[in-house]
């Protein structure tokens, strides 16, 4: 018999925490989730994934961006788009999503404890919220996520100089903006503001952006963003941001000075562990606030697990969810597979990018022979109907066993389309499956067949030469 209040306490109600809690509850365990009442659903629902993706949807709809190919460059659904237009949709979706999360937890008899948790000892946490309480459990999952990292030298004023969490608090759509950091979050927001007609300058200290993606696709994205008046400053470092009532001036180490109405910093994220009193649990975070875990998401203290962004890469909602589920299964001895090796990456820029599996660079470095097969949306009937002439899907196919090694998609529906390739790859399928499959017509999915035919034609040419 346990003397603890719960079988499991989960700290943080983001995707990782939610799924850990629900998985444990489904196993018949007594579970509590601790989070502040205005953060139910985590960064994901309140300040990160959901608001940014809803904002993107609102931008795409109101600007009429995706329809301009068909109706002309001046096409707009609304002319003077205001921040209120954009945020109305965002707030609506956040409200609904919070309800979904709450209902799911309640339905599974997971207790929601309001407040901020800190360790008292390795099995006990004190919670400070609207009330104070102390609760204990056999197992604990830390799913506290991250917050934007803020360089000390920069004065964030919540009005003109903001981090990516504060961007949703802008009172007007700025006419010009400097985005510092060309990581996924920075470049997603840069493309949204550019689509709204804001003149965006992206400053990135590295020489490239999104280096983990296919370079051909990143080039296409840069071309598109430049077309929307985005200026890139690669290999440049910000040394100062000056602010007055109307504007900002960002000074770069090279001496360039960039005036803009607003500056958004997107310079990485810091694990939310500093206020957890980790030492009382026998734990320690690294200098970026992250926790190290073993293969089953156990920290150095066996009964304490950590999942989601607080453990670092890949820091995505979908991965965090599965980490949470697997941590709970392990904690309560439920057999489970390991985290799926094929994890898709989705980047919701305008246009969007998604991929799964290897990149050309990785295959080349590891001397794996492959051929590419490409389909351009403009050659697909659905591409023409949708007015997407720039989209593309690229398959990387092994020339030895014809298996699909990677799928890279750019354009409308990329983040959904990638899963077809993921399923084929996950089942060990070859390019021949895609050649022989019948796809609905007209669809963007048909890109798979076109790309597969392209790849097999190239492989055939090679085979003919060899025999
Ligand atoms: C702008 C932005 C856009 C993003 N877009 C995408 C995307 O398109 N796709 C995608 O897959 N991912 C995206 N992400 C990443 C995604 O949001 C995260 O991977 C995901 O939210 C991580 O989940 P998590 O379980 O770690 O918890 P989080 O969602 O990070 O939530 C952590 C929770 O823990 C709570 N907490 C922290 N400390 C304590 C404490 N001491 N006591 C109690 N509670 C505490 C916090 O209040 C918070 O609610 C985006 C992130 C950002 C910032």
From TrEMBL:
| Keyword annotations from UniProtKB, A to Z | Cytoplasm, FAD, Flavoprotein, NAD, NADP, Oxidoreductase
Q: Which residues form the Pyridine nucleotide-disulphide oxidoreductase dimerisation domain?
A: 344-451
**EC primary class:** oxidoreductase
Record-annotated FAD/NAD(P)-binding domain positions: 6-324
Highest taxon listed in the record's lineage: Bacteria
| Cofactor(s) this protein requires | FAD
Question: Tell me, what's a Pfam family for it?
Answer: Pyr_redox_dim
Q: Which InterPro entries would you find in this protein's record?
A: Class-I_Pyr_Nuc-Dis_Oxidored (IPR050151), FAD/NAD-bd_sf (IPR036188), FAD/NAD-binding_dom (IPR023753), FAD/NAD-linked_Rdtase_dimer_sf (IPR016156), Pyr_nuc-diS_OxRdtase (IPR001100), Pyr_nucl-diS_OxRdtase_dimer (IPR004099)
The job of this chain, per UniProt, is described as: Conversion of NADPH, generated by peripheral catabolic pathways, to NADH, which can enter the respiratory chain for energy generation.
Name recorded for this polypeptide? NAD(P)(+) transhydrogenase (Si-specific)
């Amino acid at each position: 018999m346990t003397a603890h209040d719960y079988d499991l306490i989960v700290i943080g109600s983001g995707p990782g925490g939610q799924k850990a809690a629900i998985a444990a509850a489904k196993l018949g365990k007594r579970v509590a989730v601790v989070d502040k009442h205005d953060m139910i659903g985590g960064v994901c629902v309140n300040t990160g994934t959901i608001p940014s993706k809803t904002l993107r949807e609102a931008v795409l709809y109101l600007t009429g961006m995706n329809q301009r190919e068909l109706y002309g460059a001046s096409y707009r659904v609304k002319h003077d788009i205001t921040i209120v237009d954009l945020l109305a949709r965002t707030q609506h979706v956040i409200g609904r999503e919070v309800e979904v999360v709450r209902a799911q937890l309640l339905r599974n008899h997971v207790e929601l404890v309001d407040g901020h948790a800190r360790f008292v000892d390795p099995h006990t946490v004190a919670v400070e919220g609207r009330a104070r309480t102390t609760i204990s459990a056999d197992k604990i999952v830390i799913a506290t996520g991250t917050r934007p990292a803020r360089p000390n030298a920069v004065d964030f004023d919540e009005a003109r100089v903001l981090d990516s969490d504060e961007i949703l608090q802008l009172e007007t759509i700025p006419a010009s903006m400097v985005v510092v950091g060309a990581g996924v979050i920075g470049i997603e927001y840069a493309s949204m503001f550019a689509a709204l007609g804001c003149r965006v300058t992206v400053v990135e200290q590295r020489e490239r952006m999104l280096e983990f993606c296919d370079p051909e696709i990143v080039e296409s994205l840069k071309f598109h963003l430049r077309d929307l008046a985005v200026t890139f400053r690669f290999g440049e470092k910000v040394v100062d941001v000056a602010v007055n009532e109307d504007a900002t001036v960002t000074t770069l180490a090279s001496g360039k000075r960039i005036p803009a109405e607003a500056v958004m910093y997107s310079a990485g994220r810091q694990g939310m562990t500093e206020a957890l009193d980790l030492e009382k649990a026998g734990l320690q975070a690294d200098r970026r606030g992250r926790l190290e875990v073993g293969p089953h998401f156990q920290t150095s203290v066996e009964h304490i697990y950590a999942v989601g962004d607080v453990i670092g890469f890949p820091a995505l909602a979908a991965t965090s969810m599965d980490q949470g589920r697997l941590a709970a299964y392990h904690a309560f001895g439920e057999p489970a597979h390991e985290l799926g090796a094929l994890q898709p990456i989705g980047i919701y820029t305008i246009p969007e990018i998604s991929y799964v599996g290897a990149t050309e660079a990785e295959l080349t470095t590891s001397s794996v022979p492959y051929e590419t097969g490409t389909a351009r949306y403009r050659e697909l009937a659905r591409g023409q109907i949708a007015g997407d002439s720039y989209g593309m899907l690229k398959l990387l196919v092994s020339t030895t066993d014809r298996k699909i090694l990677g799928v890279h998609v750019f354009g409308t529906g990329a983040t959904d389309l990638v899963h077809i390739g993921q399923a084929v790859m996950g089942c060990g399928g070859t390019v021949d499956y895609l050649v022989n499959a019948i796809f609905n017509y007209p669809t963007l999915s048909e890109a798979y067949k076109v790309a597969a035919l392209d790849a097999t034609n190239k492989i055939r040419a090679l085979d003919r030469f060899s025999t």
